[in-house]
Specification:
This protein has no helices and 5 strands. By secondary structure, the protein is mainly beta. The radius of gyration is 11 Å and the shape is globular.
Length: 75
């Protein structure tokens, strides 16, 4: 299981979203401030096999999980 994030997400991160959202890897394309402490708006896409589904989510940073990145690594 991936560890919960201890930092604000960055463009390019591969994340696991909170449990109430789709259980698919999510690639971050933009991070925006919503004006709610501890939350961020994420713009990006869900990776579902060969399908790419663009979505934006308002999520609490403390509930995001950083996933191992098979393309770029986590270094």
């Amino acid at each position: 299981m991936a560890a919960l994030m201890e930092r604000r997400p960055r463009v390019g991160d591969l994340l696991g979203l909170p449990a109430w959202l789709p259980d698919l890897p999510y690639r971050v394309l933009a991070v925006r401030e919503p004006g709610i402490d501890g939350y961020v708006w994420l713009d990006g896409y869900l990776l579902d096999g060969y399908a790419v589904v663009e979505r934006s989510f308002l999520v609490p940073v403390a509930r995001l999980r950083e996933l191992p990145d098979p393309v770029w690594g986590n270094g």
